[in-house]
Task: inverse folding
């Protein structure tokens, strides 16, 4: 049940209608049932997994909270880490580790073991395990209180708008909204929800899916058959595909939650207008980058023990951030590239984006965007070999092809309006600047969005990229 | 006019919250709908053809009322290119000249023909004397429905709507698209705008689209794609039932393609059960490559020859 499918909107209409008729407790139970139904539509077999995760974390956190013994508290948090990360590793990384072990043993002339079964990856496992883990760690740290009821906690873990692709919420932010009676949905809530839903659908359906058509073609061809401009345009197309796809999903999630009276955290803030890697990671997948910062980078020591340890911590955080995306070397290389870039940025002490103005800022934005694109090349490629072969094609004589002409025009046509909108939003004070303009202008923007959704669906339907993570 | 627009905007302005935004959006969408309803026949030759079907049904009914015979050629672009109507008009036997009519929507197959026949012929009491069903190798097979919008707007009528909704459509998504298309012309034709714009305005689009379609799968929605199953013929049965109900005489004709092919034995059995004759031109030795204008559709010259052979077979040619 994709957010951009009619089935989801029928489902959401029913959920919203009944939700409006209920009181606080009833609403939570209803949302929990709806969330389990939503997840069951992906694969009902994994409902047990999400129920187990919720139950175990609820138990761990309450034991941690009740225990006065620091050893018992530590044991419970370690158990929680082992169980959650164990589940993640078993479902997500099992085949990767087995394959790599097989290769390694092969180097020594030994026979490895190949399983005769395939483990299916549950949708959104990386998101809900990280969200559950943050709760237990926060309770351990004393920064949040445990949930009062299991039903509330189960809803916090499985809340359907952000269940399968985030934003990865923190217990200190979302759990109180679940537990306390939520204020009635106001016209402002409705306004914000509409804004997020329409812009989210625009980014997913108009920008991302149409870009996927071009990007998938480039990455499906043998690298040696590509010209330099084709590689560049293919990577541009993927850059806009992944941005539109993921930020579109997050926007829809935020909008849907808003109409239910919840306030989810921002996940994207015009990332392609960042100046430098630090600025980029404050704007891209904010819920993951802040999670990695708070639960990995800072516990590792952060930047407290000098330059070398800071570099090590940055690299470890980014490598694990890469691995979080999937069990593949390309994701690890992607994380490594970002880690190296962050280290270099720190070493040479670049100014922050806010300090740069005028042409310096424009040059910095362009340089950042292209470095991000270089990393996307590894992220999207099937193997590092393919990515390197595509980079090599940049060196062969360039020639114009029909694909180059077409894709240049299509990237401008599909991504151009969104880039302009991002630039315009960036210049304002508010993240929802469109809500501050005259209502006729806003209505006309919405009409443009609806017509774009209506008349420019992608030639091939594309699933949300981050559902795989 | 300006005063009216200003008055409407003034009224909208007084609405609370985002209500005025929603109302203005609704007005704009209604204007788009009106524009589509008044000019959808200019979107493509196919839409223009589909828009003529109601008038054609009226003509067939009138023909029947005057005692004149009529011939309905049912198919898709293969049929359109395979039958020369001038030959039919001039070469058919004088006492039984059937007035020919063409119902051949682009890219259609047996499911479209079945519902189109019911909507425009059976339910309009337009009963052609003779029906020729022209098919290629696979057009009589039941196939997954890929375009519920087109079905909802142009093929399925109100009488068949609910049975179609529950029996033919697999999920809520396609059902919603189908229902929306029954009320909105803009929605039903929404996928026609992009190619219309890009084929005409984007340099190299045609070549690029063709290249990409060869690299990527056409649709990732159908999970059964690629599975080789024995074809089924439910819609053929239903179409022949409808034709029998309308009292028409029918012939199934396989159109020559660059490679010879035979219709599956199930088709012959179903045809026999419905007392329908089958003329397998597709199984004859293939025509030369020059008989095909684009490697698939017949040229005008080849169509003349093919039409004469069909008339010979159906025994309505002048002696």
Result:
């Amino acid at each position: 049940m994709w957010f951009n499918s009619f089935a989801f909107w029928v489902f959401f209409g029913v959920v919203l209608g009944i939700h409006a008729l209920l009181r606080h407790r009833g609403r939570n139970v209803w949302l929990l049932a709806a969330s389990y139904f939503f997840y069951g539509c992906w694969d009902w077999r994994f409902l047990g997994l999400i129920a187990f995760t919720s139950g175990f974390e609820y138990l761990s956190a309450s034991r941690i909270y009740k225990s006065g013994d620091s050893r018992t508290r530590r044991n419970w948090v370690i158990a929680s880490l082992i169980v959650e990360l164990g589940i993640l590793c078993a479902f997500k990384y099992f085949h990767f580790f087995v394959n790599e072990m097989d290769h390694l043993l092969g180097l020594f002339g030994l026979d490895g073991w190949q399983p005769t079964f395939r483990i299916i990856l549950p949708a959104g496992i990386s998101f809900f395990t990280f969200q559950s883990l943050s709760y237990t760690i926060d309770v351990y740290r004393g920064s949040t209180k445990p949930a009062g009821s299991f039903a509330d906690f189960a809803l916090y873990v499985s809340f359907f708008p952000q269940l399968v692709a985030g934003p990865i919420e923190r217990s200190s932010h979302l759990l109180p909204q679940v537990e306390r009676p939520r204020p009635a949905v106001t016209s402002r809530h409705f306004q914000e929800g509409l804004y997020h839903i329409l812009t989210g659908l625009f980014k997913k359906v108009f920008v991302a899916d149409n870009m996927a058509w071009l990007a998938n073609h480039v990455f499906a061809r043998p690298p040696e058959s590509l010209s330099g401009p084709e590689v560049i345009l293919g990577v541009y197309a993927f850059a806009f595909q992944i941005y539109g796809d993921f930020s579109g999903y997050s926007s829809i999630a935020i909008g849907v939650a808003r109409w239910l009276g919840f306030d989810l955290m921002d996940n994207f803030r015009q990332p392609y207008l960042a100046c430098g890697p630090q600025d980029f990671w404050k704007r891209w997948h904010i819920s993951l980058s802040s999670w990695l910062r708070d639960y990995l980078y800072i516990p590792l020591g952060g930047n407290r023990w000098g330059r070398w340890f800071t570099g090590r911590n940055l690299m470890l955080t980014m490598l694990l951030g890469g691995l979080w995306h999937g069990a593949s070397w390309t994701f690890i290389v992607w994380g490594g590239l970002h880690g190296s870039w962050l280290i270099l940025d720190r070493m040479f002490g670049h100014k922050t984006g806010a300090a740069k103005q005028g042409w310096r800022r424009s040059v910095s934005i362009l340089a950042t965007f292209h470095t991000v694109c270089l990393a996307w090349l590894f992220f999207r490629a099937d193997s590092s070999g393919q990515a390197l072969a595509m980079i090599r094609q940049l060196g062969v004589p360039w020639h114009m092809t029909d694909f180059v002409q077409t894709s240049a025009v299509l990237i401008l046509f599909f991504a151009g309006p969104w880039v302009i909108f991002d630039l315009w939003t960036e210049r304002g004070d508010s993240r929802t600047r469109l809500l501050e303009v005259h209502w006729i202008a806003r209505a006309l923007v919405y009409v443009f969005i609806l017509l774009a959704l209506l008349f420019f669906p992608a030639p091939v339907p594309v699933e949300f990229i981050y559902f795989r993570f | 006019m300006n005063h009216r627009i200003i008055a409407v905007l003034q009224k909208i302005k007084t609405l609370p919250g985002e209500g005025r935004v929603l109302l203005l959006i609704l007005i704009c969408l209604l204007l788009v709908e009106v524009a589509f309803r008044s000019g959808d026949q200019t979107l493509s030759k196919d839409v223009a053809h589909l828009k003529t079907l109601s008038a054609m049904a009226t003509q067939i009914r009138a023909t029947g009322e005057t005692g004149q015979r009529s011939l309905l050629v049912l198919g898709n672009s293969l049929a359109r290119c395979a039958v020369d109507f001038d030959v039919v008009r001039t070469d058919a036997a004088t006492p039984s000249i059937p007035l020919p009519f063409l119902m051949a929507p682009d890219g259609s197959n047996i499911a479209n023909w079945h519902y189109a026949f019911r909507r425009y012929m059976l339910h309009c009491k337009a009963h052609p004397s003779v029906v020729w069903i022209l098919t290629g190798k696979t057009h009589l097979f039941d196939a997954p429905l890929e375009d519920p919008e087109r079905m909802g707007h142009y093929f399925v009528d109100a009488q068949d709507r609910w049975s179609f909704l529950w029996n033919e459509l697999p999920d809520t998504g396609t059902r919603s698209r189908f229902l929306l298309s029954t009320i909105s012309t803009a929605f039903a034709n929404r996928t026609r705008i992009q190619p219309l714009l890009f084929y005409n305005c984007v340099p190299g689009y045609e070549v690029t689209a063709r290249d990409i379609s060869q690299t990527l799968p056409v649709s990732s929605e159908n999970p059964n794609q690629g599975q080789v199953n024995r074809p089924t013929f439910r819609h053929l049965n239903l179409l022949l039932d409808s034709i029998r109900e309308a009292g028409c005489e029918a012939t199934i004709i396989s159109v020559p393609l660059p490679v010879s092919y035979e219709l599956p034995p199930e088709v012959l059995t179903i045809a026999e059960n419905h007392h329908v004759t089958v003329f397998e031109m597709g199984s004859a030795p293939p025509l030369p490559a020059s008989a095909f204008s684009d490697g698939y559709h017949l040229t005008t010259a080849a169509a003349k020859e093919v039409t004469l052979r069909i008339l010979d077979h159906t025994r309505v040619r002048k002696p």
About this structure: The CA atoms of residues 202 and 287 of chain A lie 22 Å apart.
